Amino acid sequence: MKKLNGFEKHYIQEALNMLTTHNEKYVLEAEQDNKRLMYAPGYFTMINNELQEKINDLTLKKYQDK
User: Fold this and answer.
1) How far apart are alpha carbons 49 and 56 in whole angstroms?
2) What is the dihedral of CA 22, 25, 30, 32, to 10 degrees?
3) SS3 at position 55
4) Rounded Cα distance, 39 and 60, in Å
5) Which of 10, 19, 61, 65 is the most exposed place for a label (fewest CB within 10 A)?
6) Domain locations in the chain?
7) How many CB atoms within 10 Å of residue 37?
8) Which DSSP letter does residue 63 get?
9) How confident is the model over 15-53, as pLDDT tens digits?
10) Burial of 30 (0-12, 13-18, 19+ CB in 10 A)
């Protein structure tokens, strides 16, 4: 199986962080507008953390976070 290099890992992680920030902001705004969503605040952050760990596992050892 091919592994990610440092650039690929960073690129994917940055995209995930941007998406997580956007989604968390959306959830908080919806709560303020008294809308009921399927997602609670913090859900996307939790998913992001799990995905970050998986990405780290799929990365070459010399580029992995310790």
Assistant:
1) 11
2) -170
3) helix
4) 33
5) 61
6) 6-63
7) 11
8) G
9) 999 999 999 999 999 999 999 999 999 999 999 999 999
10) middle
Tokens of 28: 């908080």
If pLDDT is split at 50, 70 and 90, which confidence band does 1 have? Answer: confident
Alpha-carbon dihedral 27, 36, 44, 8, rounded to 10 degrees: -70
C-beta of residue 16 within 8 angstroms of C-beta of residue 51? yes
Helical spans, DSSP H, in the chain:
6-32, 43-57
Q: Which amino acid is at 54?
A: K
For residue 15, CA distances in Å to 22, 31, 32, 37 come to: 11, 25, 26, 23
